[in-house]
Amino acid sequence: MGLTRPKKVLTSNLAQGSSFLTSLPAGSVLQVVHRDHNPLFSTTSTSFVDITNFNVTITPSSTSSKIFLSIHSTMSTTSGHSDIRLTRSIGGATATTTGFVGDQEVGSRVASTFHQYTHPSFNTTWDMPVYSITFLDSPNTTSAIVYQLQGAVPYSATYTLYINRQSSDANASYSARNRSSITAMEIKG
After folding, report:
1. Whole-angstrom distance, CA of residue 53 vs CA of residue 47
2. Which of 49, 55, 61, 69 would bridge with 148, disulfide CB 3.0–4.6 Å?
């Protein structure tokens, strides 16, 4: 039984704008950017603040490209409400939430991507659910796009939002630390 050598793949044609990319059919994945978010994060801010290093930057090769986003986040809250939202900044412009948060008849409600409520009567200090969502964005640009997650406790600064840990963070076998992630894929339009 002889060994078969792998075929050499020429990578010189993989650069953006090459004939290789233009020959791919619509729906092809052109690039993938991924970030594991491992650090612990907490906030008592009633206004949304950036979650440190919970972002990705991707530069589409064409204005017709779509960006497929996959987000997985663990969050916990001490007896109250907490929210996470996704923002998008194109070419260094001010970040917006358009298309990434609930925006139907908001009124006094918080427009967010993820929301958690922990009732003080229940022992939920060990609860740390994983929230996941996917988006298909049509940014219509070839400028760098930053997708950033932000967190807040809009109802009261007496609450605390935690990322990647439980609100009761005991150093014991019944406690856990998790990892969140965000992935952006350029999809040929």
Report:
1. 18
2. 55
Decide which of 2.130.10.10, 2.60.120.1340, 2.30.30.30, 1.10.10.60 is the CATH code for 33-103+111-170+178-187: 2.60.120.1340
DSSP reduced 3-state for 47: coil
Domain locations in the chain? 33-103+111-170+178-187
How far is it, in rounded angstroms, from Cα 75 to Cα 139? 28
Neighbours of 134 (CB within 10 A): 10
pTM of the full structure = 0.84
Distances (CA, A) of 145 to 71, 85, 111, 115: 16, 16, 21, 25
> pLDDT 10s digit of each residue in the chain, 189 long?
454 444 443 344 445 555 676 788 999 999 999 999 888 999 999 999 999 999 999 999 999 999 999 999 988 888 788 999 999 999 999 988 877 776 666 788 888 888 888 766 665 666 778 889 999 999 999 999 999 999 999 999 999 999 988 888 888 888 888 899 999 999 999
- Positive or negative, the CA dihedral 75, 78, 79, 85 is negative
How many whole angstroms from its chain centre is CA 96? 14
Q: From the CB of residue 34, how many other CB atoms can be counted at a distance below 10 Å?
A: 11
